[in-house]
């Protein structure tokens, strides 16, 4: 399958930042360095027309370094094209710059990501917990957070 | 300096017009809303966390409980996502596809009926509520006949459907969509010309197309701001490309435009149901993928392969290859997306649900700041939020 058109343009502009490009089931995932995420997202929106952030979430790869990935699912309303950008985030420095300056909708998604995954966002206008109570301790969607709640043995569950 | 002092009041989480457990902290200057801050999470059940500990088949019933007014749509979004992850998208039999479209559109009508009923009731028009729920009850009865449940349908399966349609249901659906346009006219007759209704929703909750896209608003709310975008047409799934329907776009940007858009969407849904009923031919309802789809009961009791497949699927589940996908579908409320990250095991590594109501609610402060406190009720109604979907 041929490379997604946006990949070439992104590589041309941010050659040092693109870490990896993966094609799976016709979807393109571009992994980029987290330092450049705001510049890249601005470029994607302003120059390539990806004006809609469909979704933003964190993924916990416990046991690997870097431990977290923040995933941005973006969409171009005009060309009706989807693309995914990912940034690796270290556990020791679990922060990413906010993209809520690029797409306002990122505000709540980033709050949710902070709340449930414990990845915080620099310069976020209103970084509070959103789904869990304000005084909650821990981040429930982390893989080392017990399914049955704090203070319980981790759920052994199904054999994977 | 009389206007400097503002008053802060809580609206919800126990307020009849917040449609569940939504809390709004409103800062008021007299009757004008200066600032509105939504607080959500009262219904958080950790569906995303739970799904990391369940097999792909076991997650399906959880998706019913997201947008509980349109359960079939959530099922559909989820099974489409898993089918894409498995590379099974093209293997779904024709009949299953048509039934999916059929039920998705009936669900859209059902969901829009609840929206209209509650929206009108919030604003003070009580009669419409009773009429809408009368029609909705027909869809619920059909739901019950098809899936055995009125709300938590859990009817679609990865690879097709859980069971074939019951005998005689086609005629019932046909009668329903034949009658529906008349009913919609009745609602319009009760509301559209009503001067109180007009004054309460015209130029209320205005949001421009740029703001709507920036805030991630989708569905009828976005289309009523003049953005021509419907995933059924733009990224067709389940064979939507074979149906002839209009995408309702209105550039009114206000609650009035959204009211008309949803009513017209119901009419379009009726047309799609008619077309789907015409297309409905007998045939298989599950894909030929024995490692993924549960075999029919007679195979389980009569053949060793059937027994083994059933045992393996129930005890181990199926294991998609490593990878990640995102599938968005056009729910009655907007785009619902499933992002699934698989590490090659029988449970997803991460499943993120992009719910339409969660994102649409973000636009609420923008839509009601600067307007009167009474308009907040109209704006909540017009956004058509479901807290089950917001809090997940």
Provide a brief overview of the structure.
Chain A is an alpha/beta fold. Helices cover 19% and strands 29% of the residues of chain A.
Features:
heterodimer; A: 160 residues; alpha/beta; Beta Polymerase, domain 2; 5-stranded mixed β-sheet; two-stranded parallel ribbon; 3 helices; 7 strands; B: 392 residues; mainly alpha; Cytochrome-c3 Hydrogenase, chain B; 3-stranded antiparallel β-sheet; 17 helices; globular
Ordered list of secondary-structure elements with their pairings:
The complex is a heterodimer of chains A (160) and B (392).
Chain A: H1 5-13, E1 18-24, E2 27-32, H2 37-46, E3 52-60, E4 68-76, E5 81-89, E6 95-97, H3 106-117, E7 120-122
Parallel strand pairs in A: 2-5, 6-7
Antiparallel strand pairs in A: 1-2, 3-4, 4-5
Chain B: E1 7-11, E2 23-29, E3 32-39, H1 47-51, H2 56-64, H3 71-86, H4 94-123, H5 126-147, E4 156-157, E5 160-161, H6 169-191, H7 195-201, H8 209-214, H9 220-223, H10 231-234, H11 255-279, H12 297-302, H13 304-315, E6 323-331, E7 334-342, E8 350-354, H14 356-361, H15 364-368, H16 373-383, H17 387-391
Antiparallel strand pairs in B: 1-2, 2-3, 4-5, 6-7, 7-8
Helix pairs in contact in B: 2-3, 3-4, 4-5, 4-11, 4-16, 5-6, 6-11
């Amino acid at each position: 399958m041929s490379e997604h058109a946006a990949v070439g343009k992104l590589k041309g502009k941010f050659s040092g930042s693109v870490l990896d490009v993966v094609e799976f089931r016709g979807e393109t995932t571009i992994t980029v360095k987290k330092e450049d995420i705001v510049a890249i997202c601005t470029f994607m929106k302003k120059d390539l027309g990806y004006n809609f952030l469909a979704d933003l979430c964190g993924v916990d790869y416990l046991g690997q370094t870097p431990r977290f990935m923040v995933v941005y699912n973006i969409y171009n309303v005009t060309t009706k094209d989807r693309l995914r950008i990912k940034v690796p985030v270290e556990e020791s420095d679990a922060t990413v710059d906010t993209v809520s300056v690029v797409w306002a909708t990122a505000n709540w998604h980033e709050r949710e990501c902070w709340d449930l995954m414990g990845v915080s966002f620099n310069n976020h206008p209103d970084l509070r917990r959103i789904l869990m109570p304000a005084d909650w301790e821990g981040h429930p969607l982390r893989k080392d957070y017990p399914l049955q709640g704090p203070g319980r043995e981790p759920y052994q569950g199904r054999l994977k | 300096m009389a206007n400097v002092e503002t008053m802060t009041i809580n609206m919800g989480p126990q307020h009849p017009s917040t449609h569940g457990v939504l809390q709004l902290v409103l800062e008021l200057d007299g009757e004008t809303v200066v600032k509105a801050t939504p607080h959500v999470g009262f219904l958080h059940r950790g569906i995303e966390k739970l799904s990391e500990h369940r097999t792909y088949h076991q997650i399906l019933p959880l998706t019913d409980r997201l947008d509980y007014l349109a359960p079939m749509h959530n099922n559909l979004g989820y099974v489409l996502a898993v089918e894409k992850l498995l590379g099974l998208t093209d293997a779904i039999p024709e009949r299953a596809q048509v039934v999916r479209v059929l039920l998705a559109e009936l669900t859209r009508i059902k969901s829009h009926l609840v929206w209209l009923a509650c929206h009108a009731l919030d604003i003070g028009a009580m009669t419409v509520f009773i009429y809408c729920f009368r029609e909705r009850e027909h869809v619920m009865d059909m739901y019950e006949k098809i899936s055995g449940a009125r709300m938590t349908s859990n009817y679609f399966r990865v690879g097709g459907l859980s069971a074939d349609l019951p005998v005689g249901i086609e005629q019932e659906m046909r009668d329903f969509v034949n009658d529906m346009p008349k009913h919609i006219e009745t609602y319009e007759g009760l509301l559209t010309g009503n001067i109180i209704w007009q004054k309460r929703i015209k130029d209320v909750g205005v949001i421009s197309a740029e703001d709507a896209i920036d805030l991630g608003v989708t569905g009828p709310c976005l289309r009523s701001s003049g953005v021509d975008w419907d995933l059924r047409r733009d990224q067709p799934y389940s064979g939507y490309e074979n149906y002839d329907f209009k995408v309702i776009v209105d550039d009114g940007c206000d609650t009035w435009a959204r009211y008309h858009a949803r009513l017209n969407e119901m009419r379009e849904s009726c047309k799609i149901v008619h077309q789907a009923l015409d297309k409905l031919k007998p045939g298989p309802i599950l894909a030929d993928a024995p490692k993924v789809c549960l075999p029919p009961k007679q195979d389980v009791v009569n053949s060793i392969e059937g027994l083994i497949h059933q045992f393996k699927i129930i005890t181990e589940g199926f294991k998609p290859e490593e990878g990640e996908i995102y599938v968005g579908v056009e729910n009655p409320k907007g785009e619902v997306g499933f992002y699934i990250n698989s590490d090659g095991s029988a449970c997803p590594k991460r499943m993120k649900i992009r719910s339409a109501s969660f994102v649409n609610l973000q636009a609420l402060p923008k839509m009601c700041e600067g307007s009167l406190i009474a308009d907040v009720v109209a704006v909540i109604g017009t956004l058509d939020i479901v807290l089950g979907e917001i809090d997940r």
